[in-house]
Amino acid sequence: MHKPAAVRRQEIIDAAAVEFAENGLAGTRLEAVAARAGVSHPRIVQIFGSKRQLFLDVVTWVFDRVTEAFIDSPGVQQEQSEPGLVALGDAYRRLLQRDRTIALVMLHAYAAAGDVVVRQQVAARYLALQHKVTDLTGADEMGVRTFFATGLLVTVSTALALPDRRTDAQWGSWLLELVTPASAGRS
Q: What's the CATH number where 89 sits?
């Protein structure tokens, strides 16, 4: 059965996300991605051009999922004028609990920053995500920095499958409440 190009492309990205999560950019073989996706190695090269480009497309997909989780968080959906950092943080934690691959790919994206092209594109997505958090919450610079520092803790805890991640989430909520200005409507 012939699948539309967009469907096939997403299937490859899904398969590649698992492979990159397990092995990183350097350790992932396109043959393994092809086998997992049920396509040929040349087909992946035809669609993506290179392993690095496929990795960057996976990273883009991961950052898009995080952005969507923020936009779909209850504070934003309830049309609060400025949803709190805690609501976005909780949405992020729930996303990672549903799909640990996201945490692993994010960490591999940062680890692959020795490659200039990867560093530039990951940095651009990271900064865009910071701006999105600022736009959604109205948080100041310290609040956004604390949010991302707390998010890194949650990402690492998820990647390591630590048993007491809920404690990290409670601590993170407490910390984010400390940096949330009273005008942002604490939740």
A: 1.10.357
